[in-house]
Each structure stands twice: as structure tokens, then as C-alpha cells.
From TrEMBL:
The keyword Signal applies. This is RagB/SusD family nutrient uptake outer membrane protein. Residues 24-199 form the SusD-like N-terminal domain. The lineage of its organism: Bacteria, Pseudomonadati, Bacteroidota, Bacteroidia, Bacteroidales. The keyword Membrane applies. It is found in: Cell outer membrane. Pfam families: SusD-like_3, SusD_RagB. InterPro entries: SusD-like_N, SusD_RagB_dom, TPR-like_helical_dom_sf. It comes from Phocaeicola intestinalis. Residues 1-21 form the signal peptide. Transmembrane segments: none annotated. Belongs to the SusD family.
Amino acid sequence: MKLLKYSLAFLFGVGTLTSCMDNLDVVNPNQQTTATFGNTVDDLEECVIAAYNHMRMEGSYARVGYTIDACRGDEVWNSSQVWYMEFDDFTVLVTGDIAWWPWREWYYTINVCNFILSRVGEDNSQLSENLRRIKGQALFIRGLSYYNLAGYYQNPPLITSYDTYSSLDGLYGTNSTYDEVLDQVEVDFQQAMELLPSRDTGGEWAGGRATCGSAAGFYARTLMVRHKFSEALTVLEDIISGRYGTYRLMDNYGDNFREGSAYENNEESLFEIQFLDYASQGTDDEWTPVNTSPNATQGSAIESNFAPGDFGGWADLSATNWLYDLFKSERTINGTLDPRLYWTLGTYEADWEGFEYGNVAYTQPITASDTIRTNNSYGGIPVAKYTNLRTGLYSTVVTGLHDGINVRLMRYSDVLLRAAECENEVNGPTQRAINWINEVRGRVDLPDLQLADFNTADKLFEQIANVERPKEFGCEYGRGFDLIRWGFFYDAGRLQQMKEHSVVRITNDPGKVMLPVDYSNIGSDPELKSGFDTYVQGHEFLPIQQTLTNKNPSLQGNSANYSTDNSSYFRDNGWTVRPVVDLNN
């Protein structure tokens, strides 16, 4: 009996000691370190969510990271004449502020991805299905981050190991070359393609997340940046054939620009940025770089930038008259206007009576005598895309991070038009290229193109670059990236064409907003302006800001810092700028 008592006392003591030791080992969840966090699948899943979240910041896709590129193109101009003017005019100073926000956002995101990748290991064959998905998402998001950094800043430092951050020398990263960064982007997207499931097999998990189709689409985009058209064509063909999931064009073009589960993450979307719908927004309009509030609105401010002042918007950005005239120049097989005009620009058109929500701007009916100006002082044709100007959701814009429409970064229509472009580059104008273009045109009932009308690759390229893509993707993110990869900044004819596309009329007279504009009248008409007139070589990229080079002694500027010509890089690679072609002849 005494022995039994001693044994029970011993076991009770061990249990008590174990209990105490367990209590001592509890980690404060609010004071995690890299030594205590990131060792479980759940931890790493939280990191993935953090990486996705930082893609929705001001410098990524919630505001300026998106709109800076729209301004850099020839479809959009800065109608406020304040906030985005230096981006519109290619005169960004190294001492500015806004221009480094994308840098800040994407390196934060890269840091999170590098941490994830440091925990999952290099041997993919040893990974569970959950870890494969976690690693694939980290690779995709890091690839997307560097794709943006190269597209904006040309030669940013390439940091791929989390161990790099452990020393001051590592933190003071030196510039990598444009090619070195894009080489890594290709590798990241390729690996993500192998690790991630398709949207078909991913099921509910795939809704809003990167899939192998997302990675394949962006891999093809990256290949095209450096004119690897044959390789890109193979990837695009595989997407079209369904190898990376089932995609199709939505019957209604407008379904790509509405919020709500019925429209977002639809069958046309390869990847999109998730924003909370209008009815489910939080209360804190938080602008901090880390977005830590549990009540953050988690919408975008893109609508605030685009929306006309009369409806509560900031009236910063407007569409160019060239884009409007392009839409008006061709009608459908039924004799009506291209419905993409309705969802792209906020103009009154007789054709819109009875179409969708009709002639409406933020639920308010407009008539033929109403000309909506983006900015009351400077004019401008309103941009409807990624706003609720046409959705009938509300009548007044609540400015800030409140727009709940998901930004579709890549749609299946882009796959089709890129496939046509690559086919044209590799094999010249072919019926197959024409068929892919016609698939996109057919969705909006435009008449089919005929191969007989395109006797040269130059002519079909002109149709793709300056007709099909602007109509399908007008005022969306990516036009500036396209102008760079096409080499339009390095050819006198193309530069002149971009100047003419960008001519706008600065006026407070609503009767003049949509008047035809002519580049040749810039000298004689003081209201006319083209942002490309002030372009200086090298400034197709944003300069690396002085606040960064001051803090990092190893960091140097890029072509925009020193106004150096990039045409030699373009031509030394054997790439050619396709000449301007008159499509009417």
C-alpha cells in the first residue's frame, strides 16, 4: 500500500511538472519571431494570406500602383493636372514621393514570400499537397512582384533568399540587370505552374487564389517582354487547350467589371485582386502601408481616381479622345456601337437606350445634352471601367478605399490576343491568328476580320496593338508595359504615333470635351496637350527614388535617373520595332 502511495505521488508530481513545463513553453501569439513562427502549415498559410493582402495596398493594385501604368500609356491622361501629372508627362523627379510606393509594396510582399520559401524546402517531391500549394502561391506572388518591379524600375535588386536579410550587406542590395530580374520571374512562374492546381481541380480553394493557369498566363506575358514569342505561343496554346484549367469568354463583357460572387473570379479570369464588396466593407479607411486595422475597408481607390468630380470622385484620370474615337469608328454586325464602349467610358450614346442600365452615370439618367466631364476645371472623358458608373449600385462615390470591384489582372481574352500576336510574330499573318482575334470580336458582335485584308505581319500587328487591345483592355493596367515591350519608345514613327494618340483638350467648357483633336494643332491651340511631348529617353521607366539611394549606398539609379537611351539594349537583342501601318490602305 505504501509503495502504491509513493508511485501515485511520483506520477502526480511528474504530471504537475509536465503541466508547469507546458505553461512555460506557451508562445505569446502577439510576440512571434522567425524562430517560433513559420514551422507549421497553418503558420505558412497565414503568411500566404499576408502576401495576398499586400497586393491590395496603395502602391500595388489598390491605387497608384495600378493607375501609374494607366497614365504611362496612351489611353489615359491626368485630368486633375496635379496628382499624376508627372507620370503622364514622363517627368517624374527622383525626389518625389508617390513614385516609390510600388517599390515599397512589392519588396514587402517579396519579403513575405522569401520567408515562406525558406520554410518549405527545395525538394518538391517531399512536399504534402498543402505545402505544394503554399510554395506555388509564394512563387507566383514573388514572380508577380518582380514582374512589376522590372516593369516600373528596370533594374531593381534581386533578393530571393530570406537569409539575405540577416546582414547589413544583404539588406543593402545592389542593382540587378533587367534580364537577371526577368530570368528569375520566368523561373518563379514556371515552378508555380508545376506546383499549383488548376481552377478545375482546385475547387472552392481556387476561388481568388493563384492557380497553374494564373502562373501560365503570367509566364507567357514575361516571355513576351523579351520577344520569346515561340516559347510564349506554346504556353498560350496550352492554356487555350485546357491544360491549365477551363477558361472561356463571358457572354457579357460587362460581367468582368462588376462586383459580387456572380461575376468575380468567373470563367474568364486567370487571376484577379480580391476587394471586399460594397455592402461588406469595414469602417476604417486605412492608408497605412501595412493595413493592420481589423476594420479596414479593404477596397480599392481606383474608382476615386477615375470618378468625375460631380459624383464625388477625385477626377484625376480621364480617357483620351483617341480611345473614344476608336470605339466610335466601328459598329457591330447589328449596326450598334461596340458594347465595350459602355463599360469603358462614361459618355452618352443613343445606342445605350435600353442597353444594360441605359444612359446612366451612378444611377442618375443622362441625356444627349449632358456631357459629363471628369474634372470640372480641366475636362476629360470619364473612365467607367472598374468604377460603379454603369453598375447601378449607388449614386455618389464614397472616396477612398471603398471600391469593391475585383481588379482582373489577366483575362482569357488576353490569352487569345497574345496568342494571335505570337502566332503573327512566329509565322506571319495566318488564319489561326485571325481566328483567335475573331473569337474576342465575336463576343461583342463585331464582324470577323478576313485574312486577305492583312497581307503583312506589320499590318496584323497594327490591328492587334492599336485596335483590338485598346478596345478590349482600354484604361486597364498593362498598356504602359506593352508600349515598352513593343519598343514604341525607341522608334521615331511610333513615338509620334503615341504623341498623337495622347492629345487631349484641357478645358472647362463641357461642349469641347469630346471635340476631335489634332496633334498638328498643338502649337496653335493652347487647349491641346500631349504628355508624350515631354518624354525624354529612359523615362519610360520610373526613376529609382533618391530616398532609396540615400539609405542604400549600394543602390544606383536606372535609365530614368540618368536619361539614358534604352534603344541599344532593344536592338542589340535583335528585336525590331514594327513600323506604323495605315490600316485604311
